[in-house]
Design brief:
Elements: E1 6-7, E2 16-18, E3 27-28, E4 32-37, E5 41-46, E6 48-51, E7 57-58, E8 61-66, E9 85-88, E10 97-102, E11 106-109, E12 113-115, E13 128-131, E14 144-146, E15 155-159, E16 164-167, E17 171-173, E18 186-190, H1 193-204
Antiparallel strand pairs: 1-3, 2-4, 4-6, 5-8, 6-7, 9-10, 10-12, 11-13, 14-15, 15-17, 16-18
């Protein structure tokens, strides 16, 4: 059977960054990365790396030498944190990137990646992690609902009074995609079999 060849983390070059996402840990064979030196450093040598078919990297063969320019490195300062989430990335110097992730049950609003720019400012704005919400559900017609809320992992239970039959799901959960599990619940028909027995007995006995 076919087994896909992948490479692990690419080589690390002092004072250089590659163009792959920071959180990516595995790279398919044939992946090519480009390395660039940090601000105020000059690159020399071969700046590309490729994942080979045997799962190893070829290249880069480069060095980053401090430039003669006296201007300091661009520092973008502290990029901020998100409530109900986390940030990955501790380097705040150009051209570094930071990436934001939300905790389970929350969805990210905005761009998850911010880049340190030459002007010392972070690109974009700090994203938000908002609770995942499902459409509000009420009790079935002629029935009852137990529980309340519409945020992620909320569980609602449905039931019918005596003489009615529950059609659909007796329990539904708000899922991570913002949809309820199960099917729409309703209380169907009223069963009068006990009345028929009573009438039959009244007439024929």
């Amino acid at each position: 059977f076919f087994v896909a060849v992948v490479c692990n983390q690419p080589p690390s070059i002092e004072n250089a960054l590659h163009n792959a996402p920071r959180e990516q840990a595995r790279f398919p064979a044939g992946t090519e990365l480009m390395y660039t030196c940090r601000s105020t450093y000059t690159a020399s040598g071969y700046q590309r790396a490729m994942c080979k078919g045997d799962g190893t990297w070829s290249g880069p063969k480069m060095t980053c030498t401090k430039s003669d320019a006296t201007e300091p490195e661009t520092d973008c300062k502290y990029p901020g944190e998100v409530s109900n989430g986390r940030r990955e990335g501790q380097d705040f110097r150009y051209p570094a990137k930071v990436t934001y992730f939300c905790n389970e049950g929350f969805q990210l609003i905005g761009n998850p990646v911010r880049e340190c720019q030459l002007n010392g400012q972070w690109s974009g704005s700090l994203p938000l992690c908002n609770p995942i919400r499902c459409e509000k559900l009420g009790p079935p017609l002629n029935g009852f609902i137990t529980g309340s809320g519409e945020t992620y992992n909320t569980v609602l239970r449905f039931s019918c009074p005596e003489g009615y039959k529950l059609v659909g799901s007796a329990e539904r959960r708000c899922m991570s995609d913002g949809e309820w599990s199960g099917q729409l619940s309703r209380c169907q028909g009223k069963y009068h079999s006990y009345m028929y027995v009573y009438i039959y007995l009244s007439i024929y006995i």
